[in-house]
């Protein structure tokens, strides 16, 4: 029995982690407890010594010193302030008026505003809740199919996971050891393509099911002509300025992601002041929520560090590597299996948990297979986006359920009786957009240039071809920038201490 446990410590450890998670134990503590438990077992079986755990304090302090992770509270705080600053309301109202005359106009407006909110806030909850509160009643009022309305709102909100400044891309870059700026540049074009695919689905729906997404009636279009153009321009200026502050400064190399996040948070505060929405209560709520999310991320990262330390000590990384590199089909087979695995795990785990548990195991294998880790990170981010849309556990669906009307109600404008939204409507509405996200995963695999095209020309350095040549000074030679000549070196170099000791002993005899 002991021999079996020693030979299979890695798969037993991974299986125990899955068991912990299925039991509903908090992820951060499941990771840490699992690592400590198998660490003690490994020491008892003689697989490693207690000195292994002496590396833990330094690793925890390394997490605390990681400046990249500072971007998470900055972007979270910015998103929470913007959620309450009135920007989403103005955008949805104005863009809805702009697209109102065409079929599916409100759905196009939700997609467009979802992309803008994603590029400014980077927080899914803020986008879904804002659009659910503002757009959903209007869409139901004017005859939109409930499934289509809920699906497009939930899907547009999840664009915040792939369009920079996404929090998951920050975590992905940190776990893969790559630049956040490069990850943002690589993800930008796939995010825009996914946005266009959502809009294409709405266009097809309006062609084959025109009653599911009617145009706004004439009496609902309150803005026309120059007033509409003026309103559109004034509504678009704040988010575009914030997008430049956050993404523009990163892409042109003026600021790091952490510095850009700080500027974005300051810009959100200024915008809230201009709109007269900033208050003590707003600041308190935003800071409290930011502290909770940041602590959540930090605890999961510490737990994954404990798990990763022990898992590598029992050669778990080699077990995963042999398991995945031995798959049929080479690189393509690896990518297919990995994406199926991530897609299935996304039913039960959110993107933070996937990023901290799965990505550190997959990254080294992908690098050994010659896969660009920036491209691989963006591919996984697109796949993880489905974790917000999976019925029945998708978080975006839960966010929308919390603000969607459950019971029938009388509309104040049309005075019609409108049916409440069933949970099954939200689930069925999400399925077409999950399928679109899966298609996007296939497109990224089939056309790597979707990601690599946004990175421009990068100089690739093969670390195996690097040679370091250092001229070591002679033993006991004085520190000097001048290199002595060969003749002078032979005369001036001091005698070897051992030779001098032997000579003195011989002289004493």
From TrEMBL:
Gene Ontology MF, one: transmembrane transporter activity
Domain TRAP C4-dicarboxylate transport system permease DctM subunit residues, every copy: 14-449
Subunit record text: The complex comprises the extracytoplasmic solute receptor protein and the two transmembrane proteins.
Family: Belongs to the TRAP transporter large permease family.
GO cellular component, one term: plasma membrane
Biased composition (Basic and acidic residues): 499-509
Biased composition (Acidic residues): 484-498
Ranges that cross the membrane: 12-31, 37-56, 68-86, 106-136, 148-172, 192-211, 232-254, 260-278, 290-311, 331-361, 373-400, 426-451
Residue numbers spanned by region Disordered: 473-509
Function: Part of the tripartite ATP-independent periplasmic (TRAP) transport system.
Topological relation to the membrane, as annotated: Multi-pass membrane protein
UniProt name for this protein: TRAP transporter large permease protein
InterPro entries: DctM, TRAP_DctM
Pfam families found in the cross-reference section: DctM (PF06808)
């Amino acid at each position: 029995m002991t021999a079996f446990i020693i030979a299979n410590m890695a798969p037993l450890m991974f299986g125990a982690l899955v068991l912990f998670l299925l039991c509903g134990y908090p992820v951060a503590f499941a990771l840490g407890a699992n690592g400590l438990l198998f660490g003690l077992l490994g020491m008892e079986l003689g697989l490693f010594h207690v000195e292994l755990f002496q590396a833990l304090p330094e690793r925890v302090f390394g997490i605390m010193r990681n400046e990249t992770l500072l971007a998470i509270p900055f972007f979270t705080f910015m998103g929470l302030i913007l959620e309450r600053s009135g920007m989403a309301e103005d955008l949805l109202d104005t863009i809805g008026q702009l697209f109102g005359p065409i079929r599916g106009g409100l759905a196009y407006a939700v997609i467009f505003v979802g992309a803008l909110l994603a590029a400014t806030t980077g927080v899914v909850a803020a986008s879904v809740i804002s659009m659910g509160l503002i757009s959903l009643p209007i869409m139901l009022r004017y005859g939109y199919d409930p499934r289509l309305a809920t699906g497009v709102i939930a899907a547009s909100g999840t664009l915040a996971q792939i369009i920079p400044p996404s929090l998951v891309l920050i975590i992905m870059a940190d776990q893969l050891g790559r630049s956040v700026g490069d990850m943002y540049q690589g993800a930008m074009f796939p995010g825009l393509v996914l946005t266009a695919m959502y809009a294409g689905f709405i266009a097809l729906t309006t062609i084959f099911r025109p009653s599911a997404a009617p145009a706004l009636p004439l009496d609902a279009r309150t803005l026309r002509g120059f007033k509409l153009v003026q309103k559109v321009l004034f509504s678009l200026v704040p988010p575009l300025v914030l997008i430049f502050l956050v993404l523009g400064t990163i892409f042109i190399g003026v600021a790091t992601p952490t510095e850009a996040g700080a500027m974005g948070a300051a810009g959100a505060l200024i915008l809230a002041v201009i709109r007269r929405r900033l208050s003590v209560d707003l600041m308190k709520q935003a800071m409290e929520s930011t502290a909770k999310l940041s602590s959540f991320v930090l605890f999961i990262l510490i737990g994954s560090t404990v798990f990763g330390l022990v898992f590598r000590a029992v050669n778990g990384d080699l077990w995963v590597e042999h398991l995945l590199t031995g798959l049929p089909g080479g690189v393509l087979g690896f990518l297919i299996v990995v994406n199926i695995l991530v897609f299935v795990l996304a039913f039960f785990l959110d993107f933070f948990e996937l990023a901290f548990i799965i990505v550190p195991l997959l990254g080294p294998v992908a690098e050994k297979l010659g896969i660009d880790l920036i491209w691989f990170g963006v591919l996984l981010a697109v796949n993880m986006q489905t974790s917000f849309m999976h019925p029945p556990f998708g978080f975006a669906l839960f966010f929308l359920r919390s603000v969607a009307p459950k019971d029938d109600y009388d509309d104040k404008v049309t005075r019609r009786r409108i049916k409440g939204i069933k949970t099954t409507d939200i689930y069925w509405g999400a399925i077409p957009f999950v399928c679109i996200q899966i298609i996007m995963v296939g497109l990224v695999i089939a056309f790597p240039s979707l990601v690599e095209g946004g990175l421009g020309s990068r100089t690739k350095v093969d670390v195996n071809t690097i040679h370091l040549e250092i001229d070591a000074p002679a033993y006991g030679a004085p520190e000097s920038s001048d290199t002595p000549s060969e003749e002078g070196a032979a005369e001036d170099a001091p005698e070897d201490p051992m030779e001098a000791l032997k000579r003195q002993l011989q002289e004493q005899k």
